[in-house]
Design goal:
316 residues, alpha/beta, Rossmann fold, 7-stranded parallel β-sheet, two-stranded parallel sheet, 13 strands, 17% strand, globular
Length: 316
């Protein structure tokens, strides 16, 4: 298949693109290479993908309709895997406008172009953040998600609504995947797994928000990648599906695992919980199992072990 992957230079995007290339698909990568974090990391990811003869890359912004139309017109993708986004809860509070621009307008641009190109399926990355701070666990796709608590979450919810609209109006086959805290090799440097391992390795303090009892459903990158490929292959009519590990880990447990793997004690500065942060994320993955054959295989400590090994080889 000829598959367009947005956000191809990023963490999840580069892994998904590589997995598609490894199995023989042709990949059209799109990324604007913004400076949300060090662009050299994104260029490293592209260096991995550029080794594959069936990979072509366009430096383009999904918010630029004309630029994206040129890509669609030239490449005629059969499917779209839309992973480009402005990510991060806390930065979205500081600058909500760029989140709306990328996550809402950018998604709308892609849906419109995919409709015109008559693609066979469209997979869009959403987020566990849409669940807000609800108390019912685990989080199910049937739950009401009308109460986001950050601009980032609101834009991801808006993206899902646009996807449903395009399915309803044009019969497009669309799957929205709600990712639950993805981590692993090539992980983003602004996320806790990277920051904690980096700081503890270098003897620098880490920021511990709250009392350490907050929990996250950390999901290893290879499990997420398998879920994304399954969604692209299934060509479901319209579905919203959780991709998580179904095993939340507390912040205190997380820090203890990092200390064990790095071999150093963490110096933690305790901070108040941040606006927009939730107490827990916890995925009900029964729908993913049923519709995608999705079964996450990587326990958190094993995944962190792989991440620490990658970090020592590539970053320390």
């Amino acid at each position: 298949m000829k598959i367009l992957v947005t956000g191809a230079a990023g963490f999840i995007g580069s892994h998904v693109a590589e997995a598609l290339l490894k199995r023989g698909d042709a990949v059209i990568g799109v990324d604007c290479i913004n400076d949300y974090y060090d662009v050299k990391f994104k260029k490293e990811n592209l260096g991995i993908l550029n080794k594959y003869p069936c990979f072509v890359f366009y430096k383009a912004d999904i918010c630029d309709f004309k630029a994206m139309k040129k890509v669609f017109d030239k490449e005629n993708p059969e499917k779209v895997v839309h992973l480009a986004a402005r990510a991060g809860v806390r930065p979205s509070i500081d600058n909500p406008f760029i989140y709306e621009e990328t996550n809402v307008k950018g998604t709308l641009n892609l849906l419109e172009l995919a409709k015109e190109a008559k693609v066979k399926s469209f997979v869009s990355a959403s987020s566990s953040s849409v669940y807000g701070n609800q108390k019912k666990i685990p989080f199910s796709e049937k739950d009401n998600v009308d109460h986001p608590i950050s601009p980032y979450a609101a834009t991801k919810k808006a993206g899902e609504l646009l996807c449903h609209t395009y399915h309803h109006l044009y019969g497009m086959k669309i799957t929205c995947l709600r990712f639950f805290t993805v981590y692993g090799p090539r992980g983003r440097p602004d996320m806790a797994p990277y920051m904690f391992v980096n700081n503890v390795s270098k003897g620098a303090p880490i920021k511990k928000f709250g009392d350490g009892k907050s929990r996250r459903d950390y999901t290893f990158i290879t499990d997420i990648t398998e879920g994304v490929l399954a969604a692209a292959d299934r060509e479901l009519e319209f579905e919203i599906i959780n991709l998580g590990n179904n095993k939340p880990v507390s912040l205190n447990e997380f820090i203890a695992i990092v200390e064990k793997l790095v071999g150093k004690k963490a110096a933690a500065n305790e901070m108040p919980m941040q606006p927009g942060d939730v107490d827990i994320t916890y995925a009900d993955i029964s729908k993913a199992k049923k519709l995608l054959g999705y079964y996450p295989k990587t326990r958190f400590e094993e995944g962190m072990k792989q991440f620490v090994e990658w970090y020592k080889k590539n970053r320390f």
